[in-house]
Amino acid sequence: MDQRIIPAIWCNGTADEAARFYADVFREGSVVEQAPGLAATVSIHGFRLSLINGGDQYAPNPSLSCILNFDPLLFGGEDQARAYLDELYERLSGGGVLMELGEYPFSPRYTWVRDRFGMTWQLMLTDPAGEPRPFILPSFMFGGTNHANAEEATEAWIALFDDTRRGALRRYEEGGPMEAGTVMFTDFTLHGTWMAAMDSGTFHDFTFTPGVSMIVSCRDQEEIDRYWAGLSAVPEAERCGWCVDRWGVSWQVVPHNIAELMADVAVREKILQMGKIDLTRL
């Protein structure tokens, strides 16, 4: 199944270096697309991640991270899953540790780290019982100005996209760090890709930015129009296929052959002058 929604990391001139780093760090990692100096795409255990050179205006923050699901069934047993988790902890924590490696109520082995390019990763040993999940899940954390918006946002995205469903939904109870009923954890699919979300249990002074965006690969103009109408809520942020929804999440609503189009200098210049991409004008 094609991955039609791809996280994109904003890089300060380091997209090529970051692509090589991720391809080397993960056991099943490779660079699958590259426009030197502009962008690159890596495959990590079959999951695609894009890297875009955009200068120093933005940087990733923990509001949009990736969960690495160390399910023993994916790695030949618990010992092997723990060993790979510890290996990646050493290699992905070059930018700091947000939550120390250890045992938590929700996982016997978990950590949240920042790599040297600013991207944050939640490494979690999981229980193999129950419905399986893939190795990588993009994860949205709703805090600060987005306090308690996780359920509203995910419901709206599930209603908008195709091939969607909600999986787990766990709520905070009375006496917890958040109001009872807010989302402790949920996961869901958009275009068949598993993602996760939660309401932050503590206050944070950061929220979503273009530092990590979500690329939506569209088959035709009809899909571009549909997703643009359902996502774009900040007119001043509309530029060359980028838009921002009402929770501040940045989306790139682009045709499936965007890399090919951007390789043509004349076409690229036209796209850079657009808000919503109009294929009839290319």
From TrEMBL:
Q: Per its UniProt record, what InterPro entries does this chain match?
A: Glyas_Bleomycin-R_OHBP_Dase (IPR029068), PhnB-like (IPR028973)
GO biological process annotation, one example: methylation
According to UniProt, the name of this protein is 3-demethylubiquinone-9 3-methyltransferase domain protein
Which GO-annotated molecular functions does the record name? methyltransferase activity
Q: Where is the PhnB-like domain?
A: 3-123, 136-254
What is the species of this protein? Actinomyces naeslundii (strain ATCC 12104 / DSM 43013 / CCUG 2238 / JCM 8349 / NCTC 10301 / Howell 279)
Q: Which UniProt keywords apply?
A: Methyltransferase, Transferase, Ubiquinone
The answer to whether the entry has keyword Transferase is yes
